[in-house]
Amino acid sequence: xxxxxxxxxxxxxxxxxxxxxxxxxxxxxxxxxxxxxxxxxxxxxxxxxxxxxxxxxxxxxxxxxxxxxxxxxxxxxxxxxxxxxxxxxxxxxxxxxxxxxxxxxxxxxxxxxxxxxxxxxxxxxxxxxxxxxxxxxxxxxxxxxxxxxxxxxxxxxxxxxxxxxxxxxxxxxxxxxxxxxxxxxxxxxxxxxxxxxxxxxxxxxxxxxxxxxxxxxxxxxxxxxxxxxxxxxxxxxxxxxxxxxxxxxxxxxxxxxxxxxxxxxxxxxxxxxxxxxxxxxxxxxxxxxxxxxxxxxxxxxxxxxxxxxxxxxxxxxxxxxxxxxxxxxxxxxxxxxxxxxxxxxxxxxxxxxxxxxxxxxxxxxxxxxxxxxxxxxxxxxxxxxxxxxxxxxxxxxxxxxxxxxxxxxxxxxxxxxxxxxxxxxxxxxxxxxxxxxxxxxxxxxxxxxxxx
Length: 452
Known about the structure:
This protein is mainly α. The protein has helices spanning 14-22, 32-51, 57-71, 90-107, 120-124, 130-166, 186-205, 207-211, 229-243, 253-258, 261-287, 317-341, 351-377, 393-404, 406-418, 423-429, 435-441, 444-448, and strands at 171-176, 179-185, 213-214, 248-249, 298-299, 380-381. The protein has a two-stranded antiparallel ribbon with strand order 1-2. A two-stranded parallel sheet has the order 3-4. A two-stranded antiparallel sheet has the order 5-6. The longest helix has 37 residues, at 130-166. The termini are far apart.
């Protein structure tokens, strides 16, 4: 009789208990996407082995049903072994094997641990190795998150483009080295942010192509040892059907098993996106600073009180959150680079650390980008602030240089200062330029045109 008792937290076996003891970290637990991907890989292997006649029905059916429960998230509580572990991920793979085997035994009405009926290695792990299962699951999980990240980046790009149009006539000082330069429109600044994010979206959209090759079927070192040829040729196609992802088998399975440069390449694109986030977030913080005694050019959405002692203070917490997420990504890039370089001969023992860093960076970027997009949508221009472009000595001097030349404009600026006047007041009083012409030089239309 089938036992429909709910899966509990005691499904893991001796290998999992040893891992808990050997790797005593309470952090860096497996990502839900990775657990889901591991069950997808196990299902592909199970289905292929059954189709080829390597599994009896009394083993295949309960194992299949147990894996389906895992795909529904019903077995997640059993995965409490950190990804920072020795053994290239053997402990994680064995946790999956033990959980599936024990749950399959429960579903068959048999006691947990009755390995002679359903065995975690001989049945659940049949024709597999940790060295092809874990990297493959890592790639599948990464693809899952990359698709989500691409959607999030598109949201940010579109939010920035909306602000580009909304602020196209808001004139403000441009700045280089924190000093006022030629005037610019707030919309033109946001157009630059949108262009940078658009490049990031394009790069992220290409990551699936880099991640789609998997080494499933290569077993221990990429030679397919102890696995039948028909299984090796079919198992990736089965996984492709299960995931719906454009997966393919590595042409050189030995290469796919021992080398981890591709995750580093992929993470480089994530680091580029992180760099963009830090730049944009820093600019938003600066332009919203003050607001009375800072730049005070934009107003960010007020999402929470900014101080436990200073009433009325509001901090730019969303750009700060996005920056913090991006900084973690830049740190993870060093982690991946070092871990990938430490592979030796036929395997990289730190592959699971690479998977952790890649998935963590995707997760941090998804959340940081989504929150920043929401923040950008709520940004307002502070057109009523105390700053006026037309009264900025440096900006007016830069603008009139086109009419009077570099040296003469500098002389006018110094003369205005000696007279105790603003440059705009001086040039108008001295009839050096008409107010209409000056207004035209400082107009959004003039500022937005390319060249003269």
